[in-house]
Amino acid sequence: MTKAMPTGGARLCLTACVLVFLTACASKTEVVTVPQVVRVVPPEVWLLETPEPELYGNTNGALEDLARNALLQLRTCNHDKESLRKWAAGVE
Fold first, then answer.
1. CA–CA separation, 57 vs 62, rounded Å?
2. How many alpha carbons lie under 13 Å from residue 35 in its C-beta half-sphere?
3. Domain-located, residue 12
4. Is residue 4 part of a domain?
5. Which of 40-68 are b and which e, b meaning 16 or more Cβ less than 10 Å from the residue's Cβ?
6. Per-residue model confidence (pLDDT) at position 87
7. Residue at 24 is within a domain
8. Contact 56/65 with Cβ under 8 angstroms?
9. Mean pLDDT throughout 34-54?
10. What pLDDT score was predicted for residue 67?
11. If pLDDT is split at 50, 70 and 90, which confidence band does 6 have?
12. 3-state secondary structure the chain
């Protein structure tokens, strides 16, 4: 028993079908980008605790030193806060 070979018209039809299937595989794939969450933290030095000044002694001079130290600590804390605001705004 011999198999019949496709005729010219059948060959053309088979070739067209194969080309259609191959071009379907060659179509561009859709690229989907997934956003990533990146956690960014400020510099460690800006997150340190501000020490509380202590009263040493029981004189007016010791009270004056306490007031000066408290003011210095407040200025340092405010400077840290300002640095955080600039960092958050993207200005360093």
1. 6
2. 3
3. no
4. no
5. eeeeeeeeeeeeebeeeeeeeeeeebeee
6. 84
7. no
8. yes
9. 84
10. 92
11. low
12. CCCCCCCHHHHHHHHHHHHHHHHHHCCCCCCCCCCCCCCCCCCHHHHCCCCCCCCCCCCHHHHHHHHHHHHHHHHHHHHHHHHHHHHHHCCC
Instruction: For tokens 């993207």, name the residue.
Output: 90
Q: Are 50 and 70 in contact (CB under 8 A)?
A: no
Q: How far, in Å, CA of 81 to CA of 73, rounded?
A: 12
What is the per-residue pLDDT across 68-83, written as a single tens digit (0 to 9) for each? 999 998 988 888 888 8
Q: Which domain range does residue 64 map to?
A: 43-92
The confidence score (pLDDT) of residue 1 equals: 54
Confidence at residue 14, expressed as pLDDT on a 0 to 100 scale:
79
Give me the number of domains the chain comprises: 1
**pTM score:** 0.47
CA 69, chain centre distance (Å): 39
pLDDT at residue 31, rounded to an integer: 85
Q: Is residue 72 part of a domain?
A: yes
